[in-house]
Structures are given as structure tokens and as C-alpha cells.
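= Protein in question =
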Amino acid sequence: MLTREDNELLTRVGPGTPMGALFRQYWLPTLLPSELPGNDCPPTRVRILGEDLVAFRDTGGRVGMLADHCSHRGASLFFGRNEEHGLRCVYHGWKYDVDGRCLDMPNEPSESNPSTGLRTSFREKIRQVAYPCEERSGVIWTYMGPRRSPPPFPALEWGWLPEDQHVAAKITERCNWLQILEGDVDTVHTEFLHSRIDAGDGPGMRPMDRNPRIEIAPTACGFAKGARRNLDAERYYWRIYQFMMPAFVLLPAGGNTITYRVTVPMDNEHTMFWNGEYNPLAPLTDEQRAKHQESRAVGGYAPATSDPLTKWRTIASRENDYMLDYEAQRTKTFSGVPPIKLQDVAMTESMGPVLDRTNEHLGTTDAAVIQMRRCMLNAVQALRDQGTIPPGVDNPEGYAVRSATAFIPRDRSWLDASGESLRVAPDRPLLTVGL
């Protein structure tokens, strides 16, 4: 279990908090391009790390991420006019570009902003808080950290692929970010929460260990996790995950694709959960894209307002018990909640807005959860106390890893057997078959 102090340290992410400062060291996925569908389109509200922002796409297609409140008198830039390479506040007309520079303040007399002379103009002194953005492989990323020049972009394989090889989706969850990430590094719940008990078209309960042996191998940006289950007299079934700071997870590869997860805190009690899938060697098929879309949410998304906390929320929610069906629980699925991702949402939100971990009792199969917390605690304490840059920030190559699923002879190490297959390389197929 965690102490109350460590639980507070890990879960609080707002401005001025140590964990918020840690997340700000990294590039974070923030928006789908569909949220800013065209140049000079309407801006959109964003909430991330407890900060209210406004995103817009300017006349040239560049994405800006500005503090919500205008530097003049604090009116919201969400109401701004997106025109001619900048966002103009409608209260008094001050206009900002994607870098936060004030381009115009038409309510000021000419002497405030002389066109010649040595005196710095009033306009040149104004700088709206602005965070740099990059658009890659169908995702808009933001860097909110202290560096004037952002760190290098992480070499996540899916972040560099053509868009036809990658698909991403979002869900807003009403709970703290750590609860969600803990679920993503936990392999054991799959055999219970996501299993079926009928003989229908589902995978059914796997005829293997439901209490796997967990092994951890540190990496440059986090750790690889091997979950070992008995398969037969000669082989083990290994599911190999990757955890990368601050909150990236690769689930075990399946077929020719890898599923990834990213957990981005909106504030202490709301989280933007990213669920993506990619094929490193070829475009995704229509069937794969359709299956990924269907897995996001039963019944689709609930109606949203401009408030970012209402966006990307599933119709299935705590108010309707996530569409729990007790008859299905008795005859079809272990949980009675459809589908897989919604089952995860039901469990993590059911813990409450911020879980009190002083009351938990961890077992041997929670080894990856323990290791992830240790990674985060070590990093946030080192940043807070010594100013040590967290793992991965200046080592983008450390993110060039893959997950795997493999049948490995019992006398071989899972790390030795998977070897180079866990590293990204051109034309290298995924490790999803027996060895």
C-alpha cells in the first residue's frame, strides 16, 4: 500500500504540484485533428493538468494552445475570432498568434505602439501563455514544460507512422489518472473482468493460469513486463507489455497490430484516456478500424457541451451502471458489462474520484503496479528535490520499443527469446507467434 503522503504526491497534478511538474516535462497527446477540422475553424476548450486552455488552428494550419483568459482583462479566448493567422479576443480586440505574441491591440492609441524608435511598444511586452503543438499520425501533441525549446519528440513507433497505419480514440473518465494507468499495467484482471463464461463467439475463459508469474525488466524509459502462464509441458505463454514514462503502455501484440494506451490527467478527478492501435508494416484494414471503433463505447458518446469535461464521455456511465446486465453476467460474460473498455471504465471509476491506497492489500500478481508506482515516485521526488530530469525526456530512442505475445520453451528466458523483437526496426514483423 502507499502512505497517505505518497498517494497525494502521485495523484495531485494541478499547477504547482510535483506530479503536475513531472507530466509537464513530456510531450502529451491532447487533441484529435477532428477537433480542429480546418484552418480558421472555431477554437475548442481544453483542460489538461488542471489548466484551462483554448486550442485553435490558424490560417496557415498551425495549431495553437493558449491560456484561456486574455492577458488584457481576462475574458475567455474561447469566444475569440479565429482570423488572419491569430485568435482575436472579442472583448477589446487583442489578437494573439500560436506562439502567444500579441499581434494587435486596436483599442490602444498609436503612441502605445510606435512603429519607430527605440522604446519597446506596449504590444511587444504582452505575451499570452502559449504551449507548442505538433501534429503527428492523427494526434495533436502539446508540450507544457519549462523549456524554451521543447525536448525531442519521443520515438514511439505509432507517433511516426502514416495515418492509414494508425487509429486513435479518446474517452473522458471521471477518476484520477493513476487508477487508469494501474489497470493498464495489470495483466491479471484480463482473465476475470474481460472473460466470457458462455460457449458463444467470445474467447471464453482461457484454459491456463489465472494467477500468472510476473517478471519485470527495467528499460531506459520505464520497464518491460513479462506475464508467464502455463501452456503445456514444454512451453510457457508469455504476454509482454511495455510501460514508458510518464503514462504510455503497449499491450501485448496481437496478429499484426499493437494496442497502446496513454493516460493524460485533465485534473485530479478527470482523465483523458487514449486508446490506439497500429500496424507498423501496413495500413490497417477496414475491418480492424471498424473493430477498434466499436470497442470504444457501447451506444457511442454522450451529448457534449463546449466544457471539456463533458466531451468524449460514453453514454454508458455510473448513472446507468455502465449498462450492467445481470442476466448476461450469469450466462455470458464474467462482468455483465459490455464491451472490454467499458468494463475497465466501470472498475476504475467505481474506486471513486481519487482512490485512497492506504487501505489496499497488494499481492504477488500486482508486481507491475508496484514497479510503476516506484518509477513514478522515484522520478517525481528526484525532480522535486534535485531538479533531476525524468527518464525518457532527453532519451527519445528509449521509446522505440514493442510489445509481444509468444509461446516460449520453458528452459529459455523470455527476454533472451524475445530479444531484438522488442525493439523497433524497419520491416521487422511483430512477435506474436510461437518460438
Notes: The chain has two domains: 37-143, 157-422.
